[in-house]
Amino acid sequence: MRFFDIVFSLVGLVLGAPLLLVLFVIGLFDTGAPLFVQERVGRLRRPFRLVKFRTMRPGTAQVATHLADASAVTRWGAFLRRTKLDELPQLWNVLKGEMSLVGPRPCLPNQHELIAARERLGVFAARPGITGLAQVQGIDMSQPERLALTDAEMLARLGLADYFRYLVLTMLGKGAGDRVR
Asked: What is the pLDDT of residues 104-121, one digit of tens each?
């Protein structure tokens, strides 16, 4: 599936460049800092720097989304989250090999309960992804044990058909993503 990750991320970055530029410029007006870079836990628990479009005001505490204050999300950020356009810059992470299009969402280094559960279930053997089974089912990081079990279930049976199914379901808007309180 790495082949498809490379092809789709490269095509997405090249063909999506005009859209990425427009979103970047609008983000400049919204927050002054349209990109958000954050350390996440990757494959084999190696840290990497995840890139997204900023949806919250600069200076917001870097915590799991479900622990963030909803008032920190800008109106533009709410639109980006609802449409999942905030995830587009992660195509760069996919192209670099730090992520896959489909896999368990990368967690923060301070999400100890989720890290322990994923470690126990062997989830860190896979590249983290932009989307996956948990995302299309609306399971977020507020349920660490359930999330880790769902990730392990997905990885145990992930084939080409599921890979494409999760991508299509995500593009069709399935799943709510991480909820802000």
From this structure: 999 999 999 999 999 999
Is residue 51 in a domain? yes
Domain assignment present for 54: yes
Domains identified in the chain, total number:
1
Residues 6+ apart with CB under 8 A from 58: 31, 32, 33
Nearest to 52 by CA among 29, 71, 33: 33
Q: pTM for this one?
A: 0.90
* pLDDT, position 157: 96
Range of the domain at 153: 2-171
Give CA–CA dist 76/51, Å, rounded: 17
Q: How far apart are CA 65 and CA 42, in angstroms?
A: 18
